[in-house]
Write a structure and sequence with these properties.
about 950 residues; about 15% strand; signal; Metalloenz_LuxS/M16; nine-stranded mixed β-sheet; globular; six-stranded mixed β-sheet; Cytochrome Bc1 Complex, Chain A, domain 1; about 40% helix; Pept_M16_N; alpha+beta; Peptidase M16
């Protein structure tokens, strides 16, 4: 856990926290994970994507539109009942996403019941006339992919991402729920417990609360004055009858759009959709009132935060995404203002005065929320920073934004547009947003609008949004929450009568196609080679990838490679890498990237996204930053001071205290992983320490480069050898593997967090095996039974579905070449923490005593095996997945080897592995938030 907190710069954490809190997207299972080289990232709910340009569609006799977009045939069809269908083939992997979006969100909810759309989204998983909640969950789990839903101000979307051979099954599930649901009192009573846990989790985030309050001020007395989350008080008053009425009013084919993307045949999808949805009757939906906000009554919001760093946020009304031209202008403006060459970054971040400074828009169809914010360390003058930020924006507005800046922003947005197409799930998000939410014929209209934005448009918008009477200010000041408390271990194993999770019989239309489990074949063909200097190059050619994506990782472990009295040198180095190269200073380097519309990051994890025609130039710039960083002495002191101030706040924060409490519970007191930076260790650094650390850690023999794109591997190798071939490694050997550790003993820790109304709980233990051990796959199967497949899993069913104790519960293995940890995580009210923990421990004891059922075995095998193709359904999943396998010293086709193992495992082998390795009595518990009751 310490790695997750300390190895990222505070600016990344801060920006990510604000972005996550402000999107106002709520779902039935909105868990997420951070991407890293040792972990393949799941597809996120990404921003809508756009295609390369508008095309003129052809129309068939039956009303089906066919358009040639980006070399693919995009088929659009509107059924007689009004259901819109869009099919976008993409053959990157044998995967498909089916996304059904209903054009109803929180804006249609009664102001007294703001979370109605969100609550109904939850109830859509509770069963229909012909399908029980258990059957829906079991089918979703057996599909083996991602099953989720989310609600925004404007829409509610339900999606399945799974092997494309099961697209028909997913479509049938969508259709069954469109025919009608069973919103019973009993089901709502159970689900209300879970959704209120979700509300408590969100309201435990000061950023979330601040954005909620800002929205209420900016859009008072409009449907956008509240977000999609809802409140605990309103859910207490919500009834099943109200939810059923909301469904009957808005959930109708003519108010929905079905988007299917991936490795599918468009005609077959349209035919299947016509069969499944064509007989569902439609009705008119109520007319929506126009959104007409009144004159703004701006008031300052001041709040505490436990994050260890503070925020000063200016919020203002921004164009809705349906205002295509204005929204495009907003996107270009944000890109200009966020450019590292610009005054906002230069004067506020590069100068060392703040940790981050950003400008952006949180989208909604008719009422966007614009934000300009700074992140500052504890003790900083927040009001002074706000004054400076306002002054910088006024200065930019006065001087005007040049045509060159506009052109650079457009090039960057065009590259982002192309790169965002390289995801099957992302394609569904892109088209659903464009067609269902924004009412466009194609996402291409958004890109066309961006290309038409002028400097005058951008300057006019900036002058409007910087007016003090047009904005709301929120200031979140860091404050502490008290010292952690630790105690003894768990009191012992519980005695009970073991019970297997009930078997669920599926309807024939699902049971037959899902019954046979076939181990997949790898669809990508990575070309693996090494340069003479030891650098490993993996090239993945694919004509389904539109941009060129480069992902790099240098194996490193700061816990081992930093001198004991110089902890924090890795973070200072990471920040100094942003200050140019020996060939280009900071601004000149960014200008070179801007000239080709590329984006790049440097460090032990580095990346490049670029259009194919600019690959050679982009690779040259990436290599320049990695191999020839300027590390200027002039930048050292401001960065050092900023890092010391940031660290002071961070180590006082509950997040850090929780991670340290967990680490101390798991590892010996002298373990290297317990070391961390302090303000004193950072202020004691010298510039020479930073350069020495760079030379020690940045070495080709520890580096892997993955290139994904429509490229020739031989050409890529030539280009990489030209730019990285002269890089030489030191004569010594890098030590980056932490020593194995003995099994831990149980302990319990409480970390106060005044900002949280809900507790965040971690239960963890060290395991004495690694990924190469024969039992590792059996334990993965056991974990799949516990929490894989979400609602069909034992713990989701016991903790959420049946008792409403938690909103989410997750579990998994944190692995390296020498260590493995089993970690459970859940969020619950203080009075539910102990009961949830008891049930988790009971589930582990049960799995050691009694073999899982045949149904659970089949479901776990199906889930693990069928999710494997998703590792190749986006460029990022391919890149990070390969880096993960290198980090763990695994063959590149490890997931496919694992599939064969999963298929041959039996219940007795899983039981034996759990009994041998899992120790329910030795779990370390860390609770962050109010004291458990």
């Amino acid at each position: 856990m310490k790695d997750e907190v300390m190895e990222k710069t505070i600016r990344v954490l801060a920006i990510g926290a604000l972005s996550l809190a402000a999107t106002a997207v709520y779902g039935a299972d909105d868990t997420s994970q951070a991407a890293s080289p040792s972990q393949t990232p799941p597809e996120a709910n990404a921003a809508p994507q756009r295609d390369a340009g508008p095309k003129t569609p052809a129309a068939l006799a039956d009303g089906t539109d066919i358009a040639a977009i980006n070399g693919d045939t995009v088929v659009k069809k509107t059924l007689a009942n009004g259901l819109q269908i869009v099919v976008v083939p993409d053959h990157l992997a044998p995967v498909a996403t089916t996304m059904l979006t209903y054009k109803v969100g929180s804006r249609e909810a009664d102001t007294a019941f703001p979370g109605t759309a969100h609550a109904l989204e939850h109830m859509m998983f509770r069963g229909t006339k012909d399908l029980s909640a258990a059957q829906i969950a079991a089918i979703g789990a057996a599909l083996g992919g991602q099953v989720n839903a989310f609600t925004t101000n404007d829409a509610t979307s339900y999606y399945f991402t799974m092997p494309s051979q099961f697209a028909d099954v997913a479509l049938r599930l969508h259709a069954e729920r469109m025919k009608g649901i069973l919103a019973s009192k009993a089901d709502w009573k159970q689900e209300r417990g879970a959704i209120e846990q979700e509300v408590n989790a969100a309201m435990s985030s000061p950023i979330q609360v601040a954005i909620k309050r800002m929205r209420a001020q900016l859009y008072t007395d409009t449907p956008y004055s509240h977000d999609a989350l809802g409140t605990r008080e309103s859910f207490d008053k919500t009834t099943a009858k109200r939810l059923q009425s909301f469904y009957d009013t808005w959930y109708t084919p003519s108010n929905a759009t079905l988007v299917v993307t991936g490795d599918v045949e468009p005609d077959a999808i349209v035919d299947k959709a016509r069969t499944l949805f064509g007989d569902i009757q439609s009705h008119d939906v109520p007319k929506r009132a126009p959104v007409e906000p009144e004159k703004l009554d701006a008031k300052t919001i001041r709040m505490p935060t436990d994050a260890g760093y503070g925020y000063a946020i200016l919020g203002f009304r921004a164009p809705g995404t349906r205002e295509v031209a204005a929204n495009a202008t907003s996107e270009v403006l944000a890109k200009v203002l966020n450019n590292p060459r610009g005054p906002l970054y230069t004067e506020m971040v590069a100068s060392g005065k703040s940790l981050a400074a950003q400008f952006g828009t949180l989208p909604a169809a008719e009422a966007g929320l614009g934000v300009s914010y700074v992140v500052f360390p504890k003790g900083a003058d927040a009001d002074g920073l706000v004054k400076q930020m306002r002054g910088i924006l006024k200065g930019i507005a006065k001087d005007g934004i040049s045509a060159d800046q506009i052109a650079a922003a457009k090039r960057s947005l065009i590259t982002e547009d192309v790169a965002e197409r390289d995801s099957i799930h992302g394609l569904a998000m892109r088209w659903s947003s464009a067609v269902a939410v924004n009412g466009l014929a194609s996402p291409a209209q958004s890109l066309a609008a961006i290309k038409n934005v002028s400097a005058d448009d951008v300057n006019a918008m900036l002058k409007h949004v910087i007016q003090p009477d047009q904005s709301v200010l929120a200031v979140l000041t860091p404050e502490g929450s008290g010292a952690p408390k630790s105690g003894g271990g768990f009191g012992g194993a519980e005695s009970f009568s073991p019970e297997n999770v009930d078997d669920v019989s599926l309807p024939d239309w699902a049971a037959k196609p899902l019954s046979e489990i076939i181990a997949p074949e790898q669809s990508i063909k990575p070309v693996d080679t090494r340069l003479d200097n030891g650098l490993r190059l993996i090239t993945v050619p694919s004509d389904s990838v539109h941009a060129v994506h480069v992902y790099g990782h240098i194996r490193n472990t700061p816990d081992l490679q930093q001198p004991e009295n110089k902890t924090g040198v890795d973070d200072v180095l990471a920040q100094m890498l942003e200050y140019g190269t020996t060939k280009h200073d900071r601004k000149a380097y960014q200008a070179a990237l801007d000239a080709i519309g590329a984006s790049a990051t440097a460090g032990t994890d580095f990346s490049l996204t670029v259009l194919p025609e600019h690959f050679a130039t982009g690779l040259s710039l990436l290599a320049e930053n990695e191999l020839l960083p300027a590390l200027p002495k002039a930048a050292f002191k401001p960065i050092q001071q900023r890092a010391a101030a940031t660290t002071a706040g961070l180590i006082a924060s509950p997040d850090f205290k929780s991670s340290q409490a967990l680490a101390r519970g798991l590892f010996p007191k002298d373990d290297p992983s317990l070391r961390h930076a302090t303000p004193e260790s950072i202020t004691g650094l010298s510039h020479d320490d930073v350069t020495a650390y760079y030379k020690r850690v940045f070495r080709p023999d520890m580096t892997t480069l993955v290139v994904v794109g429509n490229v020739d591997p031989a050409d890529v190798k030539t280009a990489v050898k030209k730019r990285f071939g002269d890089w030489h490694a030191p004569d010594d050997t890098a030590e980056v593997d932490l020593p194995p550790v003995a099994p831990n003993k149980s302990s319990r820790h409480h970390v106060p967090d005044d900002a949280q109304t809900q507790d965040t709980v971690h239960l963890a233990e060290t395991l004495g095996l690694t990924t190469t051990d024969g039992d590792y796959r059996a334990l993965k199967m056991a974990n799949q039974v516990l929490t894989g497949g979400t609602f069909a899993s034992r713990l989701y069913r016991q903790l959420r579905v049946e008792r409403g104790l938690v909103y989410y519960v997750s579990s998994g293995f944190n692995t390296s070449r020498t260590r493995t940890r089993l970690v459970f995580r859940y969020g619950s009210d203080p009075d539910k923490v102990d009961e949830a923990e008891r049930l988790i421990r009971r589930a582990l004891v049960q799995m050691a005593k009694t073999p899982i059922s045949d149904t659970e075995l089949h479901r776990a095998q199906a889930g693990l095996i069928r999710q494997i193709p998703l590792n190749e359904a986006s460029a990022s999943a391919i890149g990070y997945g390969l880096l993960s396998r290198v980090e763990l010293d695994q063959p590149l086709d490890t997931p496919y080897r694992a599939a064969r193992v999963y298929k041959n495992l039996d219940a007795e082998a899983i039981q034996a592995a759990v009994k041998k390795w899992i120790r329910p009595d030795d779990l370390v518990r860390v609770v962050q938030g109010p004291a458990p009751e």
